[in-house]
Design a protein that fits this description.
156 residues, alpha+beta, 15% strand
């Protein structure tokens, strides 16, 4: 019977002289090219530092986004307070109390807090204690439960 073309011994390796690794047990020792090891270590270090910088930039972007949202909320509150009824000139950084009239849904800014009324508050439901900042916006110091829905309502 003639031998088949694929009947080669198990130890047979084609193009063994072109292989980067040893193909026989008595072949010279295999040592990886130090240049390729250095390159892979350099790439690994580069990827690590790049990922650290990306993570840091993402944290900064999230901080900027949160700050922008806080400013937008203060501007919305300032727009609502500008439409509110009050008969005094607000002093910067002083606390004022914001109320919402139940029937008319209009807002009232008052010097008197909800706990300072001897009877029930004539202005309606209490929304928040606020103060005006130097840039003309207002920030809430205390919030009632209904303040969150007040903040999400579009300006009339």
């Amino acid at each position: 019977m003639p031998p088949a073309e694929n009947d080669k011994p198990l130890s047979f390796v084609e193009n063994r002289n072109l292989r980067e690794h040893p193909t026989e047990t008595n072949a010279p020792a295999f040592r990886p090219d130090p240049l390729s090891v250095d390159r892979s270590e350099a790439l690994e270090a580069m990827n690590h530092h790049a990922q650290e910088q990306i993570d840091r930039l993402q944290e900064q972007a999230q901080l900027l986004l949160r700050q922008a949202q806080e400013i937008e909320a203060r501007v919305r509150l300032a727009e609502q307070i500008a439409k509110a009824q009050y008969r005094f000139t607000p002093v910067l950084l002083q606390p004022y109390h914001l109320y919402e009239a139940a029937q008319s849904k209009s807002h009232v800014l008052s010097l008197i807090g909800p706990e300072e009324w001897s009877n029930s508050c004539p202005y309606g439901s209490y929304l928040a204690c606020v103060r005006q900042l130097g840039d003309g916006t207002w920030e809430p110091l205390e919030r009632s439960d209904s303040f969150e829905t007040f903040q999400t309502l579009p300006a009339p």
